[in-house]
Design goal:
This protein is mostly helical. The chain has one domain. α2 packs across α6. The relative contact order is 0.14. Bound molecules: heme C. The site of heme C has 24 residues, from α2, α3 and α5.
């Protein structure tokens, strides 16, 4: 193998490793989840917002996200399927009228995936 070919081979190996890492990367609350919640939910689920007024749910900090609504938590760490947070953004709840964001543009599949993975990884404050 010529030196150039060897270098090319090493580089492509590197690329494969990078892709594999991206697949089971740890999702970060601060870097990945918080920006989605701020952009898509902040308008109604922050102090004085109508979603907060009705449900008691604030989505402006990790502590508030974990606290949930006035009825209780919306996240079951490690189990996205059981988490109300995931159910309302996927729109899989029995009542489609509570799909979130309320009346707004639905989250992209990529954003839903980020939130699901974060919950399945234990919904950490990372
Ligand atoms: C345009 C306003 C609005 C936006 C944006 C919004 N919500 Fe809501 N949300 C509401 C209202 C109002 C309620 C009270 C329940 C109802 O009347 O449907 C609510 C309730 C909820 C509940 C409680 C549902 C239950 O069954 O107890 C969750 C969880 C929730 N929102 C999550 C979110 C998430 C996550 C986002 C962002 C992806 C979001 N919301 C964006 C208005 C909004």
């Amino acid at each position: 193998m010529s030196l150039l070919k060897a270098v090319g081979f090493a580089l492509s190996l590197g690329a494969v490793v990078t892709v594999a890492n991206a697949a089971d990367k740890t999702v970060s609350y601060k870097q990945d989840v918080m920006p989605i919640l701020q952009t898509s939910c902040g308008e109604c689920h922050s102090k004085g917002g109508k979603g907060t007024a009705k449900s008691g749910l604030l989505l402006d900090s990790y502590e508030h996200v974990m606290k949930g609504t006035k009825y209780g938590p919306i996240i079951d760490p490690g189990h996205s399927v059981n988490s109300v947070l995931v159910q309302v953004i996927e729109g899989k709840q029995v009542n489609p009228s509570i799909r979130m964001p309320h009346g707004g543009v639905h989250l992209s599949d990529a954003s839903i995936k980020v939130i699901k993975e974060w919950v399945d990884q234990g919904a950490k404050n990372n």
